[in-house]
Amino acid sequence: MKHLLASGLLAIGLAAATQSAAQDTIRFAVTDIDGMEALQREMGPFKDAFEAASGLKVEFFPVSGRTVAVEAMAADQVDFVLTGPAEYVVFNARLDAQPVVTWVRPDYYSTVVVLDESPVKSPADLKGQKISFGEIGSTSQHLGPVDLLAQAGLTYAVDYEPVFLNRNVAVEALISGDIAGIGLNRTHIDSITEKFPDQKFRVLVKGPQLPDDILLASATVSPEVVETVRKTFADNNEAILAALTSTEENAKYIGGKFNASVTNADYDVVRKMFENIGITEFTEFVGE
After folding, report:
1. Which residue in 81, 99, 134, 254 could disulfide with 262, CB within 3.0 to 4.6 Å?
2. Among 185, 209, 28, which Cα is nearest to 101's?
């Protein structure tokens, strides 16, 4: 009897130890980094800095996009996911994933761009025209520019024809007159200006700062672990940001910060953007 009792207590102790060890490790995915090699290269310095500051071990979980990431979280294969604003809305609707901390990107806003010589002088002049957007469902390249046009009184896919072209192809179509405007974010304006040095572009309309990229937590992660992660970012902003931006791929975060006071309501503006394109249920990614 004593032997059985001792064995039972040992089993309970081992189970508790295993659970404790599991909570010391967080499984981490990034929706726009494809594969383990790229994840380690682009996020390795961040991982080292975060582990040192938090006492938690970060285990990378590579994904090939937002759909794989949300399925992995649904299958309890990943705890935390870094993703964009539009993607967060879907994670929240499908899995009740909660915001932990935003990764602030300076000058993160949407625009609609035309050729400088274009006769289009206001958004109203785009009525009846073709407008190209970036990736379907992208906050800054699709939903944001559509929102700017909606605020100017243009109804999506009614007052103009949305098309989705590769950025360089879109610029060539703009030059040839096949489309009248392109929805871009500020970083992309820099890119097309560099790639098409003989062309001058004009920002027809510019939006406000967009909601930022966000680190979200699965509903299955304990509140204690979520709070540890949130507090680590809040207390070690500069050190973690310096490590993150030490890789060229994360240059978009230079000059930014981590905001640990984010709430779900901060992303209601993105839900409104979805409504502009006729989506009122947020459980599926746009275009999938």
Report:
1. 99
2. 28
Ramachandran quadrant class, 70 (left: phi over 0; alpha: psi -120 to 50; beta: rest):
alpha
How far is Cα of residue 88 from the mean position of the Cα atoms in its chain?
7
CA dist 225 and 98 (Å) reads: 13
Lookup: tokens for 174: 């703009």
Q: Cα–Cα distance between 135 and 104 in angstroms, integer?
A: 21
pLDDT tens digits along 5-32? 444 444 444 444 444 444 699 999 999 9
Tokens of 47: 């991982």
Q: What confidence tens digit (pLDDT) does each residue in 206-261 have? A: 999 999 999 999 999 999 999 999 999 999 999 999 999 999 999 999 999 999 99
